[in-house]
Design brief:
By secondary structure, this protein is an alpha+beta fold. The chain contains nine helices and 14 strands. The protein has helices at residues 101-113, 137-152, 159-174, 180-184, 220-233, 235-258, 261-277, 283-294, 318-330; strands spanning 15-16, 38-50, 61-77, 83-85, 90-92, 121-127, 155-156, 191-194, 197-200, 207-213, 299-303, 310-315, 335-341, 353-356. Helix 1 packs parallel to helix 2, helix 2 packs across helix 3 and helix 5 (220-233) crosses helix 6. The longest helix is centred in the C-terminal third of the chain and has 24 residues, at 235-258. The radius of gyration is 20 Å and the shape is globular. The chain starts with 14 loop residues before the first strand and ends with a strand. The structure holds (R)-mevalonate. (R)-mevalonate (MEV) binds at residues 48, 52-53, 55-56, 134, 177-178, 180-181, 220, 224, 304-305.
Length: 358
């Protein structure tokens, strides 16, 4: 099994586990195809509460793992060619469609880094995390695949090494990833992230969020490129907006620690406007934000790369979340989930929970 990332610090190095029955690695770059065992890995989806895009330029960000949106990967040694079985594609890994290249990259990177390059394997992926919706699908799939390969080979991966391998796939997915998604999909609770460093966040009182999918695919790589282009075209204004988004993350950290949901919500709505001005909004996101605010949301903003994807709205409590979910569906949301972030001190962080709202 993979270990989960502990933002408070990780094991210092990889460790080859004692063989459990057959040892999968022959140490000569091959995986014994006769092995009966399967390596498994898992990760969760995530939502970014504050700091998307600005985090690429060194500003802080806050993200929350969504524990019930999970990806599970199973890897088994195969006889000749590597194949993938997933909801999006089943067939030889050499022929995966472009959108699944990062999955193939994650597999190759893990096999090569762990001493078995080109070993043929059968990779099976099952995922609840919607793809291209800004909720961490690419990072979660990569994290699950890396974990599964390590498990197959009997290696307990150091969290930093696991992170680096996920980042190889994230670079294939969208160019210059900050590392926020890769951290969030393996975090045990809300995280504060800046310049690659991650730490757990205190949450004074529970928070109920409603996540609504516009149904419009969001392309993180294109959105990141659009911000980069805007920064070239208008550096002063763009850098001001990026700094404002960082300031909102700082303010939100204080809101979370102080249990001030009303202030947190206001900061979310401000962040949505700044992200729109940065060029990563979408009319479908604005329509859902308006619907959420009209239904009494404390705040609403896009989450993740934007230009489509998901909106996140803060409810007053669980009953209000149901009302918000209905309002968002009525306003055209393709899918809606309700996520509760429990109160947490930095020393003991339970996972968030999520319920799909029908
Ligand atoms: C994408 O989920 C988050 C972005 O900030 C990109 C990144 O952090 O690499 C848009």
């Amino acid at each position: 099994m993979t270990e989960r990332t502990d933002p408070r610090g990780a094991a210092a190095s990889d460790e080859r586990r004692p063989p459990q029955g057959d040892d999968a690695s022959r140490g000569d770059g091959a995986v014994r195809s006769s092995l009966p065992r399967t390596g498994t890995g898992s990760a969760t989806g995530k939502v970014i509460l504050f700091g998307e895009h600005a985090v690429v330029y060194g500003q802080p960000a806050i993200a929350v793992p969504v524990a019930a949106l999970t990806v599970q990967a199973d890897v088994t040694a195969a006889a000749d060619v590597s194949t993938l079985d997933s909801a999006l594609y089943t067939g030889p890994i050499a022929d995966v469609p472009a959108r699944l290249r990062p999955t193939a990259v994650a597999l190759d990177a893990a096999l090569a880094a762990l001493g078995t390059p080109d070993a043929p394997v059968f990779l099976r992926i099952r995922s609840d995390v919607p793809a291209e919706r800004g909720v961490g699908s690419s990072a979660a799939v990569a994290a699950a695949v890396v974990g599964a390969v390590a498990d197959l080979l009997g290696i307990r991966l150091d969290a930093e090494r696991h992170h680096e391998l996920v980042q190889v796939a994230e670079r294939a997915a969208h160019g210059t990833p900050s590392g926020l998604d890769a951290r969030a999909v393996r975090a045990p609770g809300p995280i504060w992230f800046r310049n690659g460093a991650v730490e757990p966040l205190a949450v004074a009182s529970p928070l109920v969020f409603v996540i609504a999918d516009t149904g419009v695919p969001g392309q993180t790589g294109d959105a990141v490129a659009a911000v980069r282009a805007q920064r070239v075209a208008d550096p002063d204004a763009t850098d001001r907006r990026i700094a404002t988004l960082g300031g909102l993350a700082d303010a939100a950290r204080a809101d979370l620690a102080g249990g001030d949901a009303a202030s947190l919500g206001r900061h979310m709505t401000q962040a949505h406007a700044e992200l729109g001005a940065l060029g990563v909004g979408h009319p479908a996101l604005d329509a859902l934000a308006d619907a959420a605010l009209a239904a009494g949301a404390l705040g609403a903003k896009l989450t993740g790369g934007g230009r489509g994807g998901c909106l996140i709205a803060l409810a007053s409590d669980a009953d209000h979340a149901e009302l918000l979910a209905r309002a968002l569906r009525d306003a055209g949301a393709a899918d809606v989930w309700t996520t509760t972030v429990p109160a947490a001190s930095v020393d003991a962080q339970p996972n968030t929970s999520v319920e799909k709202t029908e």
